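ARCHIVE CARD
Drawer: 12
Card no.: 0347
Subject: one protein chain, sequence and derived structure
Cross-reference: see card 0346
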Amino acid sequence: MNSVGTGAYSTSSTGVLVAGVPGAPTSVVGVSGDTQVSLSWTAPSSNGGESITDYVVQYSSNSGISWSTFTDGTSTTTTATVTGLTNGSSYTFRVSAVNDHGSGNYSEVSISSAPHANSWTSVHIVGVMDIPITIDASATLEIFTRTHYANVWEGESTTECGTNAADSYIYLLDSSDGVLASDDDNGMNRTIDGVVTPCNYYASYISVDVSAGSYKIRASNYSTAIGWAITGDPYDLEYRIVYP
């Protein structure tokens, strides 16, 4: 444009995308473990016009009043395992995507169940007993009974060393009393106080993969003639829930 007037326009340029920060990740899911929670999420629908270079994971132990950033290095994978948590404490999590222009908005808060310790729980059995079990996520449930040894179990030796009897003493039931697993008294070695027990101090053992839900461990004997029955002398049972 000059004093004479406006000149001709230039030819149209190729469109230019104005880049910005990424959108928020979605579908954040947490699975509890021992002092840790494994997270997964879906990448944001918009990367802001630039490649995503990292994800920032934050967690809160006070329902989002304050947040801590989990230090896991730089990664573009849509998973992370947050470690160093306290078993039995509840946590919430959120995730933000990062590109060369900065961090985008955080995902909606994901509430995860508390981390769990994969430790043994001991129960003294008298008569027919049901032990209620709640599984928060997919896990392996391990159960031991012992009828001939009085010490506390330690270690994880489960070497089979011969069948001592044909009776079953432990059953895993679902919430409708359906039997999911049982075990014959099959002569498992078990490490007790640092010493491996001989076969004549035998124990029954169950190891079964289960999904989230409510279950019962039933310590009993069973026959089609009389149904559930007392197995005899009082004995002890140990179980643990092993989360991934």
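Annotation on reverse: The two ends are 71 Å apart (CA to CA). The longest strand covers residues 91-99.
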